[in-house]
Amino acid sequence: MKDLAVRLAALDPDAGAALHVIAYFDRLAEARAGLHTIVRGAAVLSGCAARLVDDERRVRIRVEPDGASTPSGVRDKDWISAAAGSATLWLERSGPPGPVDAMVLERAAAAARAVLERTRGHAAQADPALVELVIDAGAAEPLRLQAAARLGFNPDDPVRVVALGSGAVRLLPEPGGLPEGRAGVGPAGPVVRLPASYEGAVLALRFTAEGTESDPGPRVVHADELGGLALLAAAVGPGTEPVPDQRALDRAAATAPWVLATLDAVARSASLRAAATALRVHHSTLQDRLAHTLPVLGWDVRDPQGRLRLHLALALRRLHNNQR
Amino acid sequence: MTNVLPETAAGPPPPFDPELGAALAVIGEQMPPALTADMIQPMREGALLADLTDDDLARAGAFTVTRRQVPGPAGDPDVELLILTPTGATTPLPAIYHTHGGGMVVGNNRTGVEVVQDWAAEVPSVIVSVEYRLAPEHPHPAPVEDCYAGLVWTAEHAAELGIDPERIVIAGASAGGGLAAGVALMARDRGGPALLGQMLLCPMIDDRNDTVSAIQMAGRGVWDRTANDTGWTALLGEARGGADVSPYAAPARATDLSGLPPAFVDVGSAETFRDEDVAYASAIWRSGGQAELHVWPGGFHGFDMMVPQAAVSQDARAARVRWLSRLMGM
Asked: Do A253 and A143 share a structural domain?
């Protein structure tokens, strides 16, 4: 008597079962059921665990087919999913989909989207004034905590600040997915540490690159991973004269369009062979390119000291390009 | 308690819980609210009440499954007891004596026993589920007397069954809840086995079938007023709703509810039995007894068994286990 998924599976998936799925979620929507109920419906009707995640709105719901709510683990890329506005709904099925899976996903995602828009339509995250306040070291701590609470964060929640290339700032609960685009990511910490995380994020953003041929390098940089390089940032302001190694880099770049991308790959790869693979060129081609570059650059990037000089020159070049 | 309100005084039916209502849209087609006499036989044969197998009952070795034929009421056939014993118990366990549901007209001693097994998984207990004769072929008092006879045998053979005779709880849902309440009254009146508690889940206890909730829910949900009429008429025939109905058949008829073991009563707010069950708990309190009453908002009859995943069902099931573990001192 108890298994709705079994009942549905026994029906004709094209007509009977689909109608039941539609009726189920329509009834939930009419009764203004909440997100947990909708996700539970997806799990119960499909017979496999379902999860809804909306990083911006800090929604994270996972329900087992027996109706129990359980913490979310690692996502599997094979699961089927559907967008529910800014959220994503997954059915945690890796094998072949069940007869009603697609319909369940579609209707549950639509129902979840409606609830999200109704109940969290003005996502607190979208209020830049509150975000500005929580990352402002000059604001009083109680004010910052209050603003964080209105954004949906408890004081002890681990949160990061993400500084985007567009100039926007996002708060990212830990663990959470990064937004699209160039980003500097500050360290995770409690809410009171957000101003420091913001400093880190802005600093890290200066070490990012477009990831193109003319501006090769990482599009996302974590402040946590900068180490001593962070100190360089303070040394490079708008009026700072480039050091000779950076000028040499610019000169080399002017000789051929592939020079910067090639040098960046050499700097970031564990070996020349790995660099060639990353560049999708033959090992001997890479050797030829480095032979071409060496006289212009004036030092050999293949020995350890030369690699360090290359690293620093690339970093200084990004810091020059990316002023605050 | 007789309802004195005219039918028109009942307001609209309370809404179903959203999640339960949505599930009912899926279940509804296979479970019409109304049941008439001509549907009894098809229901007995139908796949809806598919039996659990012995393998299902054993739950991968968690329970030992046995069956015993034990003496029925004087002059009547034996009754079959289905006995599920948790494996590996070294001391006498509490017992849950189960009277199954099915409107007095369908079901067998495996019906609904999986719910009791879920409790026993948390509050280790021996489950004894009684096979009683069904109406209309066997009207009152056959069903309740069969249940009583099985309880008497169980209590007398407690040692042999690994049961602590001081901790026997009787439990049943729907018609089984009515039978459990009736057996508890019998045990009190006949000086029979001392029960530790009575667990009455959405019990069917009032043959008059005229409460506000019975009227409100006509044609809606599961087991409506028509179905209830079918069940009671099968059990009592012409006597249904009349002046001379035994409280052992319809415990709502009892005028004295003192001296009973503590009761757990639960029921949905959107079902036929709501008001008779609330009244029964109130009558127990009025008589100086102990009862724990849960009215689950928007629940239809048997909601927790048909839609166990729903949030309100999970709460209802958890409340029962908590009551049992408090009662049994675990």
From this structure: no
pLDDT given at position A172: 84
Total domains, chain A: 3
Mean pLDDT of the region A53-65: 86
CB within 8 Å: B23 and A24: yes
Residue A46 DSSP class: H
CB-nearest partner of A1 from B48, B313, B314: B48
Structure confidence at residue B29 as a pLDDT band (50, 70, 90): low
Residue B43 lies in a domain: no
Residue scoring higher pLDDT (B45 or B169):
B169
> Which of helix, strand or coil describes residue B293?
strand
Residue A245: its pLDDT value, please? 92
Give pTM, 2 decimals: 0.70
Are the CB atoms for B323 and B266 separated by under 8 Å? no
Tell me, yes or no, whether A139 lies in a domain: yes
Q: Taking a C-beta distance cutoff of 8 angstroms, is the pair A170, A162 a contact?
A: yes
State pLDDT tens for residues B185-201: 999 999 999 999 999 99
Same domain, A288 and A260: yes
- pLDDT tens, residue by residue, A237-276: 888 888 899 999 999 988 988 999 999 999 999 899 999 9
Residues of B in contact with A66 (CB under 8 A): 308-309
Q: Are B78 and B108 in contact (CB under 8 A)?
A: no
Tokens 């690159």 belong to A209
Query: CB of B307 within 8 Å of any CB in chain A?
Result: yes
Shared domain check, A164 and A62: no
Same domain, A2 and A118: yes
Averaged confidence pLDDT in chain A? 86
A4 Cβ under 8 Å from any chain B Cβ: yes
Chain B residues in contact with A2 (beta carbon < 8 A): 305-308
* Other residues' Cβ atoms within 10 Å of the Cβ of residue A129: 7
Residues contacting A230, CB < 8 A, separation 6+: A203, A223
Q: Does B245 score more than 80 pLDDT?
A: yes
Are A7 and B311 inside 8 Å of each other by CB?
Answer: no
Gap between the Cα atoms of B83 and B109, Å rounded: 10
Decide which of A109, A125, A141 is a domain's last residue.
A125
Of A72, A101, A125, the one marking the end of a domain is A125
Model confidence at B1, pLDDT cuts 50, 70, 90, reads: very low
Q: Does B310 touch chain A (CB under 8 A)?
A: yes
The pLDDT tens digits for A106-133 are 999 999 998 888 776 544 455 778 888 8
Nearest CA-CA distance, residue B314 and chain A, Å: 8
Instruction: Give me the domain span that covers residue B107.
Output: 62-328
A205 interface with B at CB cutoff 8 Å: no
Predicted pLDDT at B185: 98
Q: Do B22 and A44 touch (CB under 8 A)?
A: no
Which uninterrupted H or E stretch holds A161? strand A159-164
Whether B49 and chain A come into contact, CB under 8 Å, resolves to yes
Of A1, A8, A28, the CB nearest to B22: A28
Domain holding A220, by residue range, is: 128-224
B15/A27 Cβ within 8 A: no
Specify the 3-state DSSP secondary structure of B20: helix
> Is the CB of B314 less than 8 angstroms away from the CB of A67?
yes
B105 inside domain: yes
Which residues lie below 8 Å from residue B90, measured CB to CB, with a gap of 6+? none
Task: Tell me the pLDDT band of A11, cut-offs 50, 70 and 90.
Answer: low
Q: Which of A1, A104, A115 would best serve as a mutation to test chain B binding (most B beta carbons within 10 A)?
A: A1
Position A313 in a domain: yes
B18·A23 Cβ contact <8 A: no
